[in-house]
Amino acid sequence: MLFNSVVYWLFLPLVWLSYFLLPIKQRWIWLLLVSYFFYGFWKIEFAGLMLLTSVIDWWCGMRVERQDIGGWRKFWLWFSIGSNLTMLFMFKYLDFALGDSAMVRWMSDHNATAWIVELGKYTIPAGISFYTFQSISYVVDVYRGQEKAEHNLPKFMLYVSFFPQLVAGPIERFGKLHAQLFSEYSPRWEDIRNGLRLLIYGLFLKVAVADNLATVVDVFYADHTAFTQAEAWLATFYFTFQVYTDFFGYSLLAQGSALLFGIHLMDNFNKPFIAKSIPEFWQRWHISLSTWFRDYIFIPVGGNKRGPWVLALAAMLVFFTSGLWHGANGTMIAFGVAQGFLYLFDRFVFKKLEFVGGHFHDHQGRLPLRRCLWDGFRQVKTGFFFMMTLVWFRSATMDQASEVFGMLWMPGYIGCRLDGLEGIAAPTLAHGLQIPLFLCIFLLLDLWVMKDRADVWLGKFATPLRWLMYAAMAVSVWVWGGAINHPFVYFQF
Fold this sequence. Notes:
Layout: H1 6-21, H2 27-40, H3 44-65, H4 72-98, H5 102-110, H6 114-120, H7 128-144, H8 153-161, H9 174-181, H10 189-222, H11 229-259, H12 278-284, H13 287-301, H14 308-326, H15 330-349, H16 369-394, H17 398-409, H18 434-449, H19 454-458, H20 463-480
């Protein structure tokens, strides 16, 4: 069930009304049932897999909490982690790991354990990477003594399956989400109002901005060699903000949906394109995943407490894992590794290019022009490097990524169509005026105008102007939403 589908917009108000008609003590049960219905709407088998994950981690969490079983605590911790990663591997990475190896061909010829190969080719359960990481974090936190184990299985199942953030995050920690799910909450107009604001702005970003950008990007990547160098740059630029507005829009829709029930989810984005370095960028982009990697991989490996070499190793491990998390494909690994090298470059090399002594401020503490220009350069440099790595993110194969890079950087590249060739009916990346218009509106709001989160910012305007903006966003969604209902980019992860 997609957030940008008619079915969801019928589902959400019905669930909300039913929720508050029920006695307070029974509301969480209703949330659990509708969350499993929401997830099983794709395939009922997906709900069964999530149930299996929940049962295993619920049991392991109780075993890990016991202090009288000695070394068995660590056994149950690793059993939980291992079972989660095994299921993730079987459904997401097995086919990639086996590839076209001799073993695969032999199994195919002899029909030996062919079901294993077919399992790897099965449709990836929506959001399996998200709820797997959320469930792992619970068991690790119980092992560390940071959280107490939940002894009620259905309540733990709701923590894993809560529908607004189930399939694409944010990846919430047990302590914060669990406490809200079972609190005695009465509907507040402030939460309803802010939730609806997040819903309309999130839907605008997804349908009016991201989906319109996707129509151009998809045409380019369907037959990239048919286009020019300028069109390759346009598609690359458009995809950068397609993936941003698509995922940012989803996050706002998730927050808005949850807020209707009085549940506050974490912010997943914080103006990443004003970041002055790649390390800062990843503090602002997909924050729930970045902090997850920080707390459960980067710091345990050594972090920044054991010298630069350990820091470099930990950072590269995080970004390699992040790339692999995004997809079982060499292009995703290349994306992650490239981000790792850029992270280390900014951390150890580019940082030394700062003016010595920090002589940017004058004697009155004001920022002179050269500092503003330098900061602007750093922001453009960070956004540009990130945009380049997204070529791997979007490309289906390493060969396609190489060809797109060639088109971008080599005039007259063999895989790039040249303008002015007679007798060739060349396609173009034609698009309507609404695409650059909506993109410019978003960039203006995100980079310079909107200092607060969308719900807070919108609430500061006078009622007539505020409702005029609501109407403009609603009309944009209705008129320019397009016939194609693009799935969210991060649903595949």
